[in-house]
Amino acid sequence: MARSKFLVSLLVAVAFCAMAGTSFAKTDPKPKCAFTGDYSFFFWSPGYPDAELAGVGFFAVNCAGAVLPGGIINCNVDGDEYETFIESGAVFLEADGEGTMLIETESSDGICGTGDNALELDVSVTQGGNRILFTSNGEPLAASGTTPNAGHRYVFAGRAGKCFTGQISGCYDIHFWEPTKPLAGDCTICVNGAGAITSGSCSCNEDLIEYLSEIETGPTSGYVLGEDCQSSTGFMAFVTSSDLVCGETSIIYLDFAVADGGQEIFGACDDFNDFDCAFEGWKQ
Questions:
Q1: 9, 52, 263, 269 — which has fewest CB within 10 A?
Q2: Are strands 37-44 and 183-191 parallel, antiparallel or unpaired?
Q3: How many CB atoms lie within 10 A of CB 144?
Q4: pTM across the whole model
């Protein structure tokens, strides 16, 4: 009896091993791309003496390292708005996630009004590709020395995150700054899923003077989001009471993007605004 049980167990084991050698054979994992997908981003020019510059946008990268057409760069320079569409580009990464990214665009004004339709960035891939840190490369020519580089005219610093295409709701804490002035502050902005701002407040230190403003609800305070990731340039406006925001204005206009599954928001002051700014924040 014991021998028959042993033979049955042996036959079952042999059959299972045969199946494992066919149907359940282990396959090599597909190679992972360190930097791929749809990204929202924002940027500013730190301490540039002649231009107050900040912006927001969207780009897409595939697993082959190509920057795909359809992205956008929305840039505010000294109160003038420039919108540039991304046509192509390429990403070159080392094993440690450091590398360069070339963005090529098409517009009559060029990127941020420079007249140049290429931008070469030094990039760092972090958090498994969920966030990208970047600064502009100062070389006069991009694309291996053939195309004028907008980064030679302006210094760009910024960050990208995997874009979010859903609706937002809840309260976001943001901090903002003016790239070329002694101005910085923070806001709490609460929104619902229907495009309304429900409450909030802003504090600001403008040239060592503190201001506190309350965000008002109503038809003049709200936001809109565009379609899918290409909407990375959403638009928000809100009216305040009490102090003027930073002592300058009672209404704020923001171009913004959403990332990290709706947990993160960042962007720049729109050209309608009375001062320039870059900002970033997270959901409470």
A1: 9
A2: unpaired
A3: 8
A4: 0.86
